[in-house]
């Protein structure tokens, strides 16, 4: 691997430093102030300028993230709020907005997009005929059981920084879904690999929807930054697009009173089924790129929230279309996992210099 302009293997690094943390690694800490107090966090440093936090008590989502000190993981005014403060039914189903911050917020496991009250007859419990779901579901505010983390040398000479955990979303007379998440980054590298498995651990057919809300903030996002897509066609736009007439490719500075703009795009995959939408900041000479498999995430949303004080753009690969769960149930596209059935999602977050 390359570090600081030179190539190293395990032995040559060991000759220079008695602890791998001189080069990079994974460190476990607990946040200890304000609304963040008590959140277990894993700090990743790759030694190549990439650093990021894994919020163990927030579904092992990704919090702050930087390249050479320049942030790209969005920081909102909510901070990384402890899940114990979360009230799922608060704000008429929009409670997610009180804990919405960071590079990645995971949506699911049984519901994504706007709130919906849906049939729950498959659970065979007469007092609970329906399930009421809020914006983007429950999983992002569930703590994980941390099963391991550290640094592991591979046979090919790479050192992989890693963490694994399990998030359980379960209710009596309800769903029993488990998310097993592995996060990897190479020592000397500038990419984050996310490998997720969602399994129906219960004994009833269970709804499954999944979405990554990947959020890029300042300074990667700035006036003149370009949002680049392998665009085939745009299949849906929010009403605010026509009302505001603000470009979705070249970013303006923060806009007073901006109303979020959302697009659903159909993207053109390469020969392996992969797409790589990106944000490029030529002034800083940096880019952020998301690589995912369109067989796993057939839908993609572009989120623009360019308001003062909440300046962000989003990349949202999704299993279902923007109309949400009610529409998916009506048109037959809703996913139900049979007992023991699982889905795999493998995604790469990549940053670099142009």
UniProtKB/TrEMBL annotation:
<dbReference type="GO" id="GO:0003824">
    <property type="term" value="F:catalytic activity"/>
</dbReference>
<dbReference type="InterPro" id="IPR011013">
    <property type="entry name" value="Gal_mutarotase_sf_dom"/>
</dbReference>
<dbReference type="InterPro" id="IPR027839">
    <property type="entry name" value="DUF4432"/>
</dbReference>
<protein>
    <submittedName>
        <fullName>Aldose 1-epimerase family protein</fullName>
    </submittedName>
</protein>
<dbReference type="InterPro" id="IPR014718">
    <property type="entry name" value="GH-type_carb-bd"/>
</dbReference>
<dbReference type="GO" id="GO:0005975">
    <property type="term" value="P:carbohydrate metabolic process"/>
</dbReference>
<dbReference type="Pfam" id="PF14486">
    <property type="entry name" value="DUF4432"/>
</dbReference>
<dbReference type="GO" id="GO:0030246">
    <property type="term" value="F:carbohydrate binding"/>
</dbReference>
């Amino acid at each position: 691997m390359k570090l600081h302009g030179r190539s190293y293997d395990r032995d040559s690094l060991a000759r220079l430093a008695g602890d791998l943390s001189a080069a990079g690694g994974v460190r476990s800490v607990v946040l200890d102030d304000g609304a963040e107090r008590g959140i277990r966090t894993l700090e990743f440093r790759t030694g190549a300028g990439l650093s990021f936090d894994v919020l163990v008590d927030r579904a092992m989502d990704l919090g702050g993230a930087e390249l050479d000190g320049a942030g790209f993981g969005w920081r909102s005014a909510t901070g990384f709020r402890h899940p114990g403060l979360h009230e799922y039914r608060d704000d008429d189903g929009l409670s997610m907005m009180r804990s919405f911050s960071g590079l990645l917020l995971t949506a699911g496991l049984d519901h994504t997009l706007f709130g919906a009250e849906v049939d729950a007859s498959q659970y065979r419990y007469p007092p609970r005929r329906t399930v009421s779901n809020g914006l983007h579901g429950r999983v992002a505010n569930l703590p994980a059981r941390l099963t391991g983390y550290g640094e592991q040398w591979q046979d090919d000479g790479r050192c992989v920084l890693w963490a694994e955990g399990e998030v359980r979303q379960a209710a009596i007379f309800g769903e029993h879904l488990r998310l097993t998440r592995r996060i990897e980054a190479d020592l000397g590298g500038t990419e984050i690999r996310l490998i997720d498995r969602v399994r129906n651990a219960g004994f009833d057919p269970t709804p499954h929807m999944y979405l990554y809300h990947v959020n890029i903030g300042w300074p990667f996002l700035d006036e003149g930054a370009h949002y680049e897509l392998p665009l085939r066609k745009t299949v849906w736009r929010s009403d605010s697009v026509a009302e505001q007439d603000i470009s979705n490719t070249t970013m303006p500075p923060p806009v007073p009173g901006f109303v979020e703009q959302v697009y659903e795009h159909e993207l053109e995959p390469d020969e392996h089924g992969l797409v790589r939408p990106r944000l490029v900041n030529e002034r800083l000479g940096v880019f952020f790129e998301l690589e995912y498999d369109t067989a796993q995430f057939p839908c993609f949303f572009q989120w623009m929230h360019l308001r003062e004080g909440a300046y962000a753009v989003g990349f949202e690969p999704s299993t279902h279309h923007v109309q949400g769960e009610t529409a998916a149930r009506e048109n037959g596209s809703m996913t139900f996992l049979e007992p023991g059935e699982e889905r795999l999602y493998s995604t790469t977050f990549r940053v670099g210099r142009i």
